[in-house]
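Blackboard transcription, Thursday session:
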Amino acid sequence: MIIFENVSKTYEKGTRAIKNMNLKIRPGEFVFVCGRSGSGKSTFLKLLLKEVEPTSGRILVDDQDLGKMKRRGKAVPLYRRKLGVVFQDFRLLKDRNVYENVALAQRVVAAPAKDIRKEVTSILTTVGLSSKYKSYPANLSGGEQQRVAIARALVNKPEILLADEPTGNLDPSNSQEIMNLLEKVNEMGTTVIVVTHNAELVNRMKKRVITMRRGVVAGDVQEGEYQDESE
Amino acid sequence: MYRKANIRMKANRIIYCIRQGVQSIRRNGLFSLASVVTIAACVFLFGIFFSIVLNLQYMVKQAESTVGISVFFDDNLTEDEIMGLGETIQRHDSVAQIVYVSPEEAWERYKERYFADYPELAEGFENDNPLADSASYEVFVTEVEQQDAVAQWLQSLPGIRRVKYSELAAGGLEKANQLISLVSAGLILILLVVAVFLISNTISLAYAVRREEIEIMKWLGATNAFVRAPFVVEGLMIGLVGAAIPLLAVFFLYQTVVRFVMDRFGILLSVLKFLPAEQVMALLIPVGLLLGAGIGFMGSFFTIRKQLKV
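(Written on the board underneath:)
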């Protein structure tokens, strides 16, 4: 369970990114967090990743108070192992092949070599890239690169998958494929939170939609829709 | 079972860190090379000065151990009193040995020293020993450092006219020793700073190259120690390689120089007593490697700690 209680975040320059945010996300949910740029959705992700601290309020993830987690030591790394993260620009290491990119996540948690082979092969099959494990990112399409990034995010079996504009760099058909994959991941039990402003995709998926506007939650609707105001 | 898995996990982590460290050295070849060369220069100079200082100390020790304290008696002292005095001196904890030098022996030594080339000059004194009142004890101490204290104690004894000891014959050597130690310490300090700075630069570059990877690793839940370890391994490796090369060079150079001096200046062998290379290296190798590893560790650990904070 993810709980935001009266969370506000003001950056040092005085920008108020999030104002008094209250929300609950239950385990196994699929949630879209939508809004224009500057609406605070990226800060929402950064707060969840404990990259930044809230100025006020409390964030609980599985009853763990992120505010009480010490930066030094292992608490933050161990917490982050519960999360998987996917970015718009994939953030794959260009000098490593598909297998090595995914295996990196396992190496970070010091998984035994035998397990790494098994888990990486299995997750690459799930994302449909088992035949391309030797390819380098430069030789893959955008959709394929994003699937590698998803595989990397999932290989350690996180409880929550955070996706920051995962289809931002993809064409509509690849975007839909990625959404289908995320839905499949969600059906396997992982909580999926997708930050996006792609209204068309959101509206087609019929999932919970949290709309953010100037740092506040402007809407929170089950099987909701998102109206992109910039259009 | 759990313990075994834990050990395997740790082993995997160490292997991963070492592999990453080696890869990083290869990636930043030129910077790594510059760091190795600077550390090598630092350790090389250290090795040279270390060997010189060690040998000078050895020579000072040698010289000092051959110098005794001469103790002269009051004119009116009887032979028994002189014997009693000898026993008192011998009982002192810091006295290793005492030798009685009779006036005749004193005169013989004097002649040998000053009239060796002109024996006819000494003949005039044949029946009239000018050193008739110069019977003495030569006192040898157990530790050279005790020489001052023992001399003072001897001076305080009743019946003793004069205490004479060279402060020291080896004084010049000791001064040279101090000067060389000081100059070498200064030079090494400067080189140390340069070496740490260069390693720090190399590690900063390695960090810049791997910045994206580190960011990803941190999102994936890597601990700071896990992220830091390959950089520290890199610094340590640069430090150790940078130290090992000059140590080898110093070993061969030392042997060559000692052989050369022995061959060319054999006449000075009584003064120039060198320590065997093995004895110098037995001290120099651990100290040098520690120095290299220390520079590598300091340069990398603090740099990466600073970078990770940002």
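Lecturer's comment: Chain A touches chain B through 23 residues (CB under 8 Å).
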